[in-house]
Design a protein that fits this description.
The protein is an alpha/beta fold and 487 residues long. Helix content is 23%, strand content 20%. The N terminus is likely disordered. InterPro entries: GH, GH10, GH10_dom, Ricin_B-like_lectins, Ricin_B_lectin.
């Protein structure tokens, strides 16, 4: 999202004067259970509620007080964009980005990186290069910025606004380097930081019947079918008089999510802060399990790039507006996903309530069967070596596929080796290791079929279904690729 205004296309199709998804918003939650801030209310259903922050405004006490109180996810408004982070080739500047990152993390907030590759707000020196030289500059930029923030961020908007309104590719200087430039950006990003969720971000993709929405959807579907690493889609959700809340908005979110990616509303602002539209977009997110959170693009109306339209939840003096209350009520009315016995994903991916501990006969073992693949968790070549990474493989009943779940929450194979997480972050390898009783070898068998690590709170996860597909840790969301049965 640029700091400067830009013209929005008028989106055709049914636009909601009264959207079906907002019906539940009128429910007022029990005051004893209701959270009093947006971030806390969103967290009750495993989501976040964030805002965009400008480093230059952090010295404004009203601004900083509201931001620190209300939100639990922060996006740098301009400070992590290409022109800010690499003003000269090979010379990176993270001072303003780090200022926002440090401010947020010191307050327990997570941070979303925005953005790595974009046709706008490019370093001036990008204008003097093209073709393979520009392609390499993009790759070097992604590697340089992600190396600095490696392991620190929850999400990265890898590519921003790469489509035209009709669903074709935007004819930018990056597009001129070859139609595969987006794929190259995502593969580069995954190699640079395996732990962060990688997102595509765009505006005017909220209406399911719109050409641009279909163009982005088809790209994501293609990426997932070919194993291109992409974890989430960001719908900017800039609603104006011409692109208001569509009646099919929830359908759009659900259809993107069905591809196996998270969805998020990343830059929300609404002309005149329409209460019905704010409530409706919030409820649509709540109704889609893989809608992980909402970010408004600014704190107060006076901080907005659309300040003349009064589009945010706080007025210029920092007072809560009616739209704030409608959002808070919707968030508080959502079904909670936390409980004293639940295992919560560390990045808001939902919770899983442990089911009763399975029992096994003395010396017996069972298979761990993938719901999506129909294949078993397998130790390659029946190895007994510490550090051997487990995989999916055709079930064969051999000892290298026989697991016993113990009273100590261990998953044992061969009687003395344990399923072991080599780390706690997204993408951490799952291996076998001599049983040692540590929490990285303890697992919760959850009622929704997921298996989550006691140490990490993340779930066993596979990217594919074929023989040899390796098992890893990843944020829990309960999809088929994270569900297993012990039998």
């Amino acid at each position: 999202m640029a700091a400067r205004p830009r013209i929005r296309a008028l989106i055709g199709g049914a636009l909601a004067a009264g959207v079906a998804v907002i019906g539940a918003v009128a429910m007022i939650p029990d005051a004893n259970a209701a959270a009093s801030t947006l971030g806390a209310a969103a967290a009750q259903s495993g989501r976040y509620f964030g805002t965009a922050i400008a480093a230059s405004r952090l010295g404004d006490s009203t601004y900083a007080t509201i931001a620190g109180r209300e939100f639990n996810m922060i996006t740098a408004e301009n400070e992590m964009k290409p022109d800010a982070t690499e003003p000269q080739r090979g010379q990176f500047n993270f001072s303003s980005g780090d200022q926002i990152y440090n401010w947020a993390t010191q307050r327990g907030m997570k941070v979303r990186g925005h953005t790595l590759a974009w046709h706008s707000q490019q370093p001036s020196w990008w204008g003097g290069i093209s073709g393979s030289t520009l392609r390499q500059a993009m790759i070097d930029h992604i590697n340089g910025v992600m190396a600095h923030y490696k392991g620190k961020l929850a999400y990265w908007d890898v590519v921003n606004e790469a489509f035209n309104e009709d669903g074709s590719r935007r004819q930018s200087n990056l597009q001129a380097t070859g139609n595969d430039w987006i794929e190259v950006a995502f593969r580069t990003a995954r190699n640079a930081d395996p732990s962060v969720k990688l997102c595509y971000n765009d505006y005017n993709i909220e209406n399911w019947s719109y050409g641009k929405t279909q163009g982005v959807y088809n790209m994501i579907r293609d990426f997932k079918s070919r194993g291109v690493p992409i974890d989430c889609v960001g719908l900017q959700t800039h609603f104006t008089g011409g692109s208001s809340l569509p009646s099919n908005f929830q359908t759009t979110l659900a259809n993107f999510a069905s591809l196996g990616v998270d969805v998020a509303l990343t830059e929300v602002d609404v002309t005149n802060a329409s209460t019905s539209q704010y409530a409706g977009l919030t409820q649509a997110c709540i109704n889609v399990p893989r809608c992980v959170g909402i970010t408004v693009w600014g704190v107060r109306d006076s901080d907005s790039w659309r300040s003349s339209e009064s589009p945010l939840l706080f007025d210029g003096s920092g007072n809560k507006k009616a739209a704030y209350t409608s959002v808070l009520n919707a968030l508080n009315a959502a079904s909670p996903t936390t409980s004293p016995t639940a295992t919560t994903s560390p990045t808001g991916g939902g919770t899983q309530s442990p089911s009763p501990t399975p029992t096994t006969g003395s010396g017996g073992g069972g298979r761990i069967l993938g719901a999506q693949s129909g294949r078993c968790v397998d130790v390659p070549n029946a190895s007994h070596n510490n550090g051997t990474r487990v995989q999916l493989y055709d079930c064969n009943g051999q000892t290298n596929q026989q697991w016993t779940y113990t009273s100590s929450k261990q998953l044992q194979v061969y009687g003395n080796m344990c399923l072991d997480a080599a780390g706690s972050g997204n993408g951490a390898a799952i291996q076998i290791y001599s049983c040692n009783g540590q929490t990285n070898q303890q697992w919760n068998i959850n009622s929704n079929g997921t298996i989550s690590g006691v140490q990490s709170g993340r779930c066993l996860d596979v990217w594919g279904t074929g023989n040899g597909q390796q098992v890893q840790l990843y944020d829990c969301w309960g999809g088929a690729n994270q569900r297993f049965s012990l039998s």
